[in-house]
Amino acid sequence: MSSSRTHRTIDAIWRMESAKLIAGLTRMVRDVGLAEDLAQDALVVALEKWPESGIPENPGAWLMTTAKRRAIDLMRRTKLRDQKYVEIAHNMDLFTEDDIDQVLDGEIGDDLLRLIFMTCHPVLSQDARVSLTLRLLCGLTTDEIARSFLVAESTIAQRIVRAKRTLSAEKVPFELPTGERLHSRLSAVLEVIYLMFNEGYSATSGDHWMRPLLCQEALRLGRVLAEIAPHEPEVHGLVALMEIQSSRFKTRVNSLGEPVLLMDQNRTQWDRLLIRRGLSALDRSRKQGRPLGPYSLQAAISACHAEARTVAETDWIRISALYEALSRVTPSPIVELNRAVALSMAFGPAFGLQIVDELRSEAALKEYHLLPSVRGDLLTKLGRYEEASTEFELAASMTKNDRERKLLRNRAAECESKITKAD
What we know:
Number of strands: 2
Structural class: mainly alpha
Domain RNA polymerase sigma factor 70 region 4 type: 115-167
Domain RNA polymerase sigma-70 region: 21-79
InterPro entries: DUF6596, RNA_pol_sigma-70_dom, RNA_pol_sigma70_r2, RNA_pol_sigma70_r4_t2, RNA_pol_sigma_r2, RNA_pol_sigma_r3/r4-like, WH-like_DNA-bd_sf
Strand order of the largest sheet: 1-2
Radius of gyration: 23 Å
Helix content: over 70%
Strand content: under 5%
Order of helices and strands: HHHHHHHHHHEHHHHHHHHHEH
Shape: globular
Oligomer: single chain
GO biological process, one term: DNA-templated transcription initiation
Number of helices: 20
Mean pLDDT: 86
Domain DUF6596: 185-285
Distance between the termini: 50 Å
Largest sheet: 2 strands, parallel
C-alpha cells in the first residue's frame, strides 16, 4: 500500500475511532482536554509506524492500547500514584487485540453518552457545548464546524479551547445525570446528536457522500436517551427523524458511491422496518401532549416522504405547512430555504425562486453552497439553463465534499448541454 493511500486509510480510521478513544480516555483521566491530547498522541504514533509496519488487524484496539500507555506514562511522570493509576494499570489487559471489540461495544459505548453530557454541562454556553462535542465525537475540523454554524473558523477554534479549559477548571464530572440536571442539558445533548447524525448523513467534506457509522452511532445514542428520558417528546422526535432518515441509506448512493437525490431514489428499497420504528417514535412524541418541537416537526416532514409511495403522491402542501411551523419554532434562513423548496413543489418553481432570491441577501448563507444549488435547480425547472449552470458551478466551488462537487458539476454540464441543443 502506498504511503498516501495508507495516510488516507489512517484518516478514515481516525474518524471512526476517535470518539471512542476520547470517551474511554476521559473516563480514565477525567479531563476531556487531556483525553483528546492523548488520543492525538496515539494518532501521531500510528502515522509514524503504520506506513512501515502496516495497519494492524484491529486498529481501534491498537490506538486505545497506545493511548492508555501514554496516559500511564504521564501519570508516572507527574507522580500521580493514586488509586486511579492502580486501577488503570491493573485493567490494562482489557485493551488487548483479542477482546477490544467487546469492550468498545459495551462499556466504552456508554462512555460516549457520558462524554456528550459532560461537554454539554451548563457551565458552558450552548454554542460552546455543541462545538466541543462535534469536535470530539464527530472528529470534525474547526472549519467543518464553522460551516455548520455559519460563522468564522477562528470563532469556533477559540470557543473550543475555552470550553476545554472551563471543563477542566470546573472539574465537571463524567457521568449520566438524572432529574433536573439531565433536563437542563437535554437541549444541547439533542442538538449534538442531531448534528452528529447530519454529518454522517451528508458529510461536510471528504471523499464520501455519507458516513453511515456516524449515523448509526447517533441513532444508538438517541435510542439510549429515549430510555433514560421517556417522557421528553423531543427525544422521541429526534429518534423518529433519525429512524426515518436512516431508512433511505441504501438508496442515497449508487454502485459507484455517487449521490442519488431524494426525487430519484428507489422507494421500494427504503427500509420499511426503520420507517415503522420512526413513525412509532413520532407517535410517542405526539402522545406526550405538548406542541411539536423542532425535531418532531422535522420527523413529521420526513414521515410525509416515507408514507408517499411515489414522488407524485408526496403531500407537498402539508410539508410546506410543517416547514412554516418549524420556521416559527426555530427561525432560520436554512429552514426558509427548505420551505422554499417545498413551496416550489407545491405551487411551482417561480414561487420558490422568489423566496430563494430574497435569501441571497442573508449574510449567514453567504458561504452556504446549498443556496446556489437550490437556486440552480429552480432555474433549471424554469428553463433558464445558462443561469442555472452558473449557480451549480458556484455551489460546486463552495462545497468541500468531493462527491457533491462532482454531482453539482454534472448538473452544470447538463444545463450547458441543453443550451447547446437549443442553439
